[in-house]
Amino acid sequence: MILTKLSLKNFKKYKNFEIDFYDGLTGIIGKNGSGKSTVFEAILFALYGELKSKGSKELVKNVRANSKDELIVLLEFEFDNLDYKVVREFRGKNLNAIAKLYKNNELIVNGAKDVTRYIINMTKMTKDAFLNTLFASQKELTSLSSLDNEHRKKMIRKLLGLEKIDQIEKFLKESISDLNKEIKSFSSFLLNIEQVDEYETHIKSYQESLKILKEKINLREEQKQKLIDEEKSIKEQLIRFEKIKEQKNDYQNKIKLYESKLESTIKNINELQTQKTQLEAKKEEYKIKKIVKNEYEKIVNNLKQQDDLKEKYLKKIGLIKERDELRLAYKKQKDEIKFLEEEIVNVNSVQLEQKELKDKIKLYQKQLQDKKIDERELRDKIAGEQNLIKDTKSKIQTIQSLGKNSKCPTCTRELLDDYDKVLNSLYELIEKTYEKNIYIYESKLEELNKRIEIKQDEYDKTVLKEKDIHSKLNILNERKKDLLKSKSYLNDIETRGKGNNEAIEKLQEYVYDKKLHEDMIEKFQNLKVEYEYLISLEAQLQGENKLLISLKEAVKEKESLVLKISQLKNDEKEILYDENTHILLKKNLDETLRKKDDLTELLYNKKLQESKINGEINSINNRLKENEEQKIKLQVKIEDLNDYTKLKLSMAEFKTNINSKIAPKISQIASIMYSKITKGKYQFIEVSNDFDFYIYDDGKKYPIERFSGGEVDLANLVLRIAISKTLMELNGSSQIGFLAFDEVFGSQDETRRLEILEAFHTIKEQYRQIFLISHETEIKEMFERLIEV
């Protein structure tokens, strides 16, 4: 893989950024916080969709970008002589991930996860492998020698991907320990031979007792069955007696029922005969008073005519009153219409004036919004400069607290004579750059706020004026609605007036005599009481035929009931029932049930005893069965323990073989580079199988801690490059053609820096691109190519 181009939009601190990559040794130079390391974070993000440390998606997007602005990272690279382009985007408020991969300008993969999967398969490197192989920092280089043995070995094994073997080995150790505990636990629960023999003796004893108990239960079961048969026979006899008794009681109940009906029928006959006598007297009275009915009906008809005349007369009076009211309303409505028509003459000119004011308000709103955006941008710039001042003052305090012998917080180089120079440059940066920028931004902000205040005043006045016009227009529109209602009401008055005159004309011929009407009402009230009594007599006389029929039917029912009662009494005497025999049978049944219940309880106790014995036998058998199962499980655990022990030995041997191949490879690559950097002073760097480092001096090997800081830094550098080279061979990633190192010059002097650069030149044949990141601007001329950020 060879990098060719990187484009960023709204990625971390970059709003818009583009960079081209070329072959050779390239320096990426810039001040602290300028975004040097962000370049390679963007490369990692483009390939794998993640940063070096996982975190919130919101931290990836530029803080000055709006929620609608897109985040875009575009990386172009060459792989296996083919041109590739990968694009990663975050869109929308939810920062939805979008990714596309092109090969020779043709889209081949779409989707964030699919693109990542394709790149891993193509490069044969995961994100962690990519980081460990191609990127190294000053902190990582220093850790190779500064960490204690255990942590240094752990870090190198992680870089080489060997921690997985360590994890497997740890898993095997833990599994063997757990199995030993489980085997010990299983063994403690197993029965010994004496316990097994004792359990088997108990089973034999229980089985003999069970045999005797079953014989007793069978005998009791036979006795119980005899009682059940006896109970059945008695119950059958009792059922027959109950049916006879029920039949006799049924006849007796029917006789009582019919006797009760006969008594009611006789009483009913007597009442009907009394009613017949009373009805004959009322019939004579009706013949005398029948004439009242004709007089009453005649007076009712006359009253109806008078009521109709009165209704028409009153309606005519009401219509005349309504006519007068309509005439007054007509005149009032004509005056109202004239007044409203004069009020709404200017409505069109008011509407035009309102439209002009609304257009003016929209213009002022847009101008105010643009100025407030400018204000917010100026405040953000001031805040940014203030943060830079705060960070710079913090660095000054740190350097002052450490003194002249302190190391640069960025490159770890001792300051010494540069102490005052560094402090002065930081103070100058605050005064001539940050504070000056703040003064310029604040002046612009003050002037902008004045313009905003003027424009806001114009806007407020226009809004108030538009509100007044709006209120006036609402009133005029209401007047228009009132005018339409008034005209409609006037038409309604005219229509009603016409109808009113026609109705009065039709009612002129009707004449009403109030005195005549009142005399008729008085005569009606006098006849009404006699008429209502006569009507009640008619109603009573209409039931005469019904009364005679009811009397005839009652006499007939009486004769029928007498005959039925006589027949039922004869039938009841023929039913034979012996109550004493019935009572004796019930006593015999109770005695039989008592005996059966006693025997049932005895059988229950015997079967309960039988169940307990069977439970004891089952419990012993289950314990013996469980013991056998435990034996089988114990054997399985023992076999697993043997297997894990063999695996542990094999893994230890495999680990030794792997280490014996990797360590010499790292030693070989590192020794060649270190010899060249030190001009042959140190010929060999040895990496043991446990990843301890030794440097040979005059044919003798010494631990790396023995040597000076500069020599150790150089040794760390070549060891890290050797580890990267070995990693690439392990991963089978022969197509990766670049390396990147962050702040690797550390505390080296100018001579040593040149030696480090020479070391990188020695591996140019293996890596077409080498990128070195540094904040030290004085080394710019040492690179073949330079990128300043």
Model description:
Pfam families: SMC_N. InterPro entries: P-loop_NTPase (IPR027417), RecF/RecN/SMC_N (IPR003395). Keywords: Coiled coil. There is one protein chain. The radius of gyration is 60 Å and the shape is flat. The model has no long low-confidence stretch (mean pLDDT 81). The protein has 789 residues and is of the alpha/beta class. The chain has 15 helices and 14 strands. The strands form three sheets. Strands 2-1-4-5-6-7 form a six-stranded antiparallel sheet, with helices on one face. It has a five-stranded parallel sheet with strand order 8-12-13-3-14. Helix 6 runs antiparallel to helix 13 and helix 7 crosses helix 13.
Which structural class matches the secondary elements? alpha/beta
| CATH class division of one domain | Mainly Alpha
Beta-strand percentage? Answer: 5-15%
How many extended strands?
A: 14
User: How many helical elements?
Assistant: 15
- Residue stretches low in confidence (pLDDT < 50, at least 5 long) are none
CA-CA gap between termini? 24 Å
* Overall mean pLDDT: 81
Largest sheet data: 6 strands, antiparallel
The global form is flat
- Roughly how much helix do the residues carry, as a percent range? over 70%
Q: Fill in the CATH topology of one domain.
A: Helix Hairpins
